[in-house]
Amino acid sequence: MTTKFRTQFAKALAQHEVRNNTESVVNKLRKHRLAAFPDQAEWISMRRHSTAIRANATSKLPQLLEQLETNLQRNGIQVHWADTTEQANQTVLNIMRFHDARFIIKGKSMVSEEMGLNDFLNTHGIECLESDLGELIIQLAAEKPSHMIVPALHKNRKQIARLFHSQFPSIPYTEDISALAQAARRFLRHHFATAPVGLTGVNFMIAETGTLCLVENEGNGRMCSTAPPVHIAVSGIEKVVECLDDVPPLLGILTRSATGQPITTYVNMISSPRKPNEKDGPTAVHLILLDNGRSRIYSDPELRDTLNCIRCGACMNHCPIYKHIGGHAYQTVIPGPIGTILEPQKNGLDSYGELTQASTLCGACQEVCPVSIPIPKIINRLRWEHIRKSSCSTPGAGSGRRKTEAIIWKIWAWNCIHPGAYNRITSVATSMRRLADRILAKISPWTAARAVPRLPDTTLHERLKALKIDNE
Amino acid sequence: MNDARNTILSRLKTASIDQTMPLARNISNSVNWSSNYKVQLFRTQLQSAQAEIYDATDHSWLMTLQHICQAKYLKNILLSPTTSWGEAIIENSTNLPSLKYYDDPVENWKQTLFEGIEAAFTSTYGGIADTGTLILWPDTQEPRMMSLVPPVHIAVIEKSKIYNSFAEALKAQHWNETELPANILLISGPSKSADIEQTLTYGVHGPKELVVIMV
Ligand code: SF4
């Protein structure tokens, strides 16, 4: 069976350099995370608390969003709602036009990736510049991020050195990581000083105080939200928490899970634009709240857990599939286990349903998830949605259903609850086992690279009978 | 866009929510270290994040500042002339580099700020021991770009204002009962990145050096 995803996965498996780069970085991230939670009991209690904070916020989502909006507006931050990515893009464009701006400098934002903002603005004559080091590398290479936290993890220093040299010929070729970072610093500094508009993502929004929290190490997020006269923040509607007290536990578990740091270099909490008599900070701050399928996901009590994600990336660092195929093979904005459950729900099982098969259901993702999202359970649920008969809230449900497959399973199910038939069929299969061997060797890609398990010459029932062991 | 707002909220409101998970907010921050231990931990954590730490007293901090400026060959330093720290510096400025004041809105001197200022001196609103973090509440006197744009950030912190954890700091300082500043900052080292091969490098977009004077 060759499909879009299978072709893409096969291609990814053949890219040895990307696989090596990916594996080496996720191994480091896993090691750092492990060292950050030395005490199992403490991890359990931190995780329980964070899970409760996110579950509480999600259960009150509409009320908290209204409270957040009221408080942000009282503080002077303008709030925009977008049902679709088109609306969100249009809102950014309107703000740019209002300020007569043709250039925007960006901090890291997965939501802006989801919106396809850069391409959209480019077609309207607006230039976008990524300022996070990883995102800048990706933009210079005209690629997409392959990881949520380390967007360029599929590239090694040699590849980045060649890229920088071709893009900035005036800078001497270097493979020294700190020299590469300094080159980016020099290149971007002037843009921070002159950009008319800056855009960032958001990590948490605090309903109680009307505050946007941004977490980062480089300082580019602070630059984008401080130096230009206008700051636009974009966020999914699910990022809200109830109160200030909810931030320290989530922050601590987020940074530890992501990179093993007890805290990032900067935590930036923005509650208003520049106040009277203040000498810097943007004079206008906008928040765009994007839905894009989230409120639909919210309608299903089981799938709703997907929205508790705090985007730490731990699930992808621990996923045996992600490690081997890398982020690009998923062909989604968000790769890895969380992408496997989020993207089909957002974009439809008809085009992304097969992605739910990109899992061994080993459960590592759920085990490391700081907010205990039952990813394997949701994967199973979506696999079923993909082939179910009736429709449901997830778009594209039932699109993977094949008649023959359904009939085979029906026969199998019937067979299993009719012992007489079951015994007859298994004994027929055993007596024709040489034929079965040959069929098995042909039909499954599994057996192309592995020895075919041989059927024994008697069935289990027959053997038990011979041993005089009863049903019990 | 009001349409979008109503559509989204009404969709969310029609969802059925069963019993919510109980959330006990007071369980996590039970540590209570001695002030000596807090200072010690604060120092180790910040040092491991590549910050420079100096111990000083109410009387010696100015000399420490002079020493830092000389050791780094700073030609100028940005500070607030109106904080008590700033006033003390101005009174004893003989051995210090040229003093610059942030007395104009940034629009009027952005280029100079980005290219001509070598260091900035700020006070802090408090500190966090378990993560090695400075809390800054920038205001009209000490604007937020002071701790962001110049390559060297020198901050002074009173040991008495170091809290066990972030959770404790925001409670003890009553953040939720106050009108919050436009921007609160938690700073835990000089700017850094590990975006290339997950290898740390310092001084990416923010300050290359963070120097902390504890008094
Ligand atoms: S699903 Fe869990 S582990 Fe994965 S990114 Fe989200 S919060 Fe992190």
Automatic annotation (TrEMBL), chain A:
<dbReference type="Pfam" id="PF11870">
    <property type="entry name" value="LutB_C"/>
</dbReference>
<dbReference type="InterPro" id="IPR004452">
    <property type="entry name" value="LutB/LldF"/>
</dbReference>
<dbReference type="InterPro" id="IPR024185">
    <property type="entry name" value="FTHF_cligase-like_sf"/>
</dbReference>
<keyword id="KW-0677">Repeat</keyword>
<keyword id="KW-0249">Electron transport</keyword>
<dbReference type="GO" id="GO:0006089">
    <property type="term" value="P:lactate metabolic process"/>
</dbReference>
<dbReference type="InterPro" id="IPR003741">
    <property type="entry name" value="LUD_dom"/>
</dbReference>
<dbReference type="InterPro" id="IPR009051">
    <property type="entry name" value="Helical_ferredxn"/>
</dbReference>
<dbReference type="InterPro" id="IPR017896">
    <property type="entry name" value="4Fe4S_Fe-S-bd"/>
</dbReference>
<keyword id="KW-0004">4Fe-4S</keyword>
<keyword id="KW-0813">Transport</keyword>
<dbReference type="GO" id="GO:0051539">
    <property type="term" value="F:4 iron, 4 sulfur cluster binding"/>
</dbReference>
<protein>
    <submittedName>
        <fullName>L-lactate dehydrogenase complex protein LldF</fullName>
    </submittedName>
</protein>
<dbReference type="Pfam" id="PF02589">
    <property type="entry name" value="LUD_dom"/>
</dbReference>
<keyword id="KW-0479">Metal-binding</keyword>
<dbReference type="InterPro" id="IPR017900">
    <property type="entry name" value="4Fe4S_Fe_S_CS"/>
</dbReference>
<keyword id="KW-0411">Iron-sulfur</keyword>
<keyword id="KW-0408">Iron</keyword>
<dbReference type="InterPro" id="IPR024569">
    <property type="entry name" value="LutB_C"/>
</dbReference>
<dbReference type="Pfam" id="PF13183">
    <property type="entry name" value="Fer4_8"/>
</dbReference>
<feature type="domain" description="4Fe-4S ferredoxin-type">
    <location>
        <begin position="299"/>
        <end position="330"/>
    </location>
</feature>
<dbReference type="InterPro" id="IPR037171">
    <property type="entry name" value="NagB/RpiA_transferase-like"/>
</dbReference>
From TrEMBL, chain B:
<feature type="domain" description="LUD">
    <location>
        <begin position="40"/>
        <end position="215"/>
    </location>
</feature>
<protein>
    <submittedName>
        <fullName>L-lactate dehydrogenase complex protein LldG</fullName>
    </submittedName>
</protein>
<dbReference type="InterPro" id="IPR003741">
    <property type="entry name" value="LUD_dom"/>
</dbReference>
<dbReference type="InterPro" id="IPR024185">
    <property type="entry name" value="FTHF_cligase-like_sf"/>
</dbReference>
<dbReference type="InterPro" id="IPR037171">
    <property type="entry name" value="NagB/RpiA_transferase-like"/>
</dbReference>
<dbReference type="Pfam" id="PF02589">
    <property type="entry name" value="LUD_dom"/>
</dbReference>
